[in-house]
Amino acid sequence: MAVTLIPTESAVVTPLRSTPSRDRHRRGAARWVVLALVTLAALAMLVPFAFMLLNAFKSPTDYSSGGPLSWPTEFYTKGLRTYWTTVNFPLKVWNSALIAGSVAVLGVVVSLLNAYALGIGRVRGRLWIVGLFLLANMLPQEALIYPLYYVAKEIGLYNTRLSVIIIFTVIQSAFGTYLLASVLSTFPRSLLEAAALDGAGKWTVLWRVVFPNLRPTLAVLLIFFFIWTWNEFLIPLVMLIDNQTQTIPVALASLQGDRLMDAPTTNAGALISLVPAILFFLIFQRTLARGITAGAEK
Amino acid sequence: MAVSETVAVPATTPTPPAPGRGRRGRNAAYWLYLLPGAVLFILVIGAPLVGTGYLSLTKWSGVGDPTWVGLDNYQQLLHDEVFWASFRNTVAMIVAMVVVPTLLGLVLASVLFDIIGRRFRPRTAAALRAAFYLPQVLPVVVAGIVWGWILRPDGAFNSLLDAVGLGALRHDWLGDPGTALPAVMAVMIWVQIGYPVVVFMAALQRVDPELYEAAEVDGANWAHRFRAITLPQIRPETFVVALTCTIAALKVFGPIFALTRGGPENATNVPSYFAYYTFFKKLQVGYGSAISTVLTLIIVVVAVVFIWMQARSERRDRGF
């Protein structure tokens, strides 16, 4: 794509040749102004996080006398501990990790199987099927939630983590199928033919030829599925109703407005809910940056 | 990458059928691989979607049997003030989640890449980008809860106004029907801005740096380069960002749930929260299904129009 565009663009640039060149000195000063402005905007983005940190370790009396902007007079951790034990935070982390982790792995497997049939197998009507998967990923979850909720209750899957795992495996793999099918439609045929000549069946080709070549894309997909599922709200809110099964965002939201949740506890709760998300971000940042550029080159 | 692309070329030319076996018969075996995905898809997406469509033609509280009422729910929707208010608010969400972030994102990504990344160190640009992206990492409900507290009458924002001498502007930002929607929009801009910035900066990496250098030697300033190079080069990504953000804006639920629950007086109600409330609080399953079905149809139309426009603009590019 980039290669085909460049010639047309350089043609657009040429007319600018007539523009007189700027005074070097003035431009040198202007770049510092730009840097200052963008840095200011970036700092403004961080202000809510600063508020969160400032108030998470403040005692309720300190908060009511000094307000949200005062520096805490002591390092108060009772809000954090109250939240930790009331919601049984380690269990919430486990629930979130179990659901997001299972969905990530199962979603990638289902996407790969679908995409193998669509992108490599080129089954009849594949364009319509891929289009259907793409649309499915865009559907509002409200259009599915009531029948899912009703059936889950009927068959005893209501309020189980398994129900949420099954639902999101399908929703996420709709996107994965769309993405992988387009990646696989450009998969080098010569590799497939060489493997076929060696007598490899379709199953062997999938795991010995296609899978190893696709591994970087699958890794990115795995991370996306994990983070998206981790942050999901509506379906877990409807499906998971007690302390044993809830995920981190649902636990925090269902305590909102509770007497227990004074300002420091709310901030402490938000702060520790943020920690796992920031950890993934730091761990996966490099994989993601690689994956995004790899995807863009396609 | 270049290697795999040159190898990939033969794939587009039709390969002759393998000797001995017909192409159709050979491909039929691939249907087996589609089977598990197809069964799951029908059970979890297809059937519930049809179910919601059917329920939208009935009156039902969730127990007993649904009563068939034909198009009554849809007729009721047309005269429901809350329904219209929720769609008006969706337009506001599109402004806050698509229009403003995409425009700001284009400018920010270009400034970060073209000025800060090249005139200072690229690491400075990367650090600034991370600050813009951080809200995207936060579970959106957690963001809603923190902002709900910041914007409370006794929250941090009013204290900040006091501290800088603007105490006269103190306000119950989310509690007043007049300011609730703008406040929610501001929060959504804060949440969304990082996404276009990151996608556009990644897109700019694949633009030939010589284009920028040549333009600069010719005396093109940042605004010239922005119009002549940045915008046309990253048009495919702009389409993708606009589409995904529009769909997200049409579906927005979590932040509304956490910030205002659609209030005050429906000033911030949106279709997805309206549907949730109708399903699970008012127990009007038929009516909730009708709201969901209308929302689904709108999303499908928007998605199809976007994809059609994208395909058309790509065809135009190839025509050169």
UniProtKB/TrEMBL annotation, chain A:
Domain of life: Bacteria
Pfam families attached to this UniProt entry: BPD_transp_1
Domain ABC transmembrane type-1: 93-284
Stored SUPFAM superfamilies: MetI-like
Annotated transmembrane regions: 32-54, 93-115, 127-150, 162-184, 205-230, 268-284
Keyword Transmembrane helix in annotation: yes
GO cellular component: plasma membrane
Keywords recorded for this protein, A-Z: Cell membrane, Membrane, Transmembrane, Transmembrane helix, Transport
Membrane protein topology class: Multi-pass membrane protein
Family the entry assigns: Belongs to the binding-protein-dependent transport system permease family.
The protein's name in its UniProt record: ABC transporter permease
UniProtKB/TrEMBL annotation, chain B:
Protein name: Sugar ABC transporter permease
Taxonomic placement: Bacteria, Bacillati, Actinomycetota, Actinomycetes, Micromonosporales
Subcellular location: Cell membrane
Span of domain ABC transmembrane type-1: 87-306
Gene3D superfamilies for this protein: MetI-like
Region (Disordered): 1-22
Broad class of where this protein is predominantly found: membrane
Membrane topology: Multi-pass membrane protein
PROSITE patterns listed in its UniProt record: ABC_TM1
Superkingdom field: Bacteria
Organism: Micromonospora acroterricola
Keywords: Cell membrane, Membrane, Transmembrane, Transmembrane helix, Transport
Keyword Zinc annotated: no
CDD domains cross-referenced by the UniProt entry: TM_PBP2 (cd06261)
GO CC terms of this entry: plasma membrane
GO biological process: transmembrane transport
Name of a matching Pfam family: BPD_transp_1
Biased composition (Low complexity): 1-12
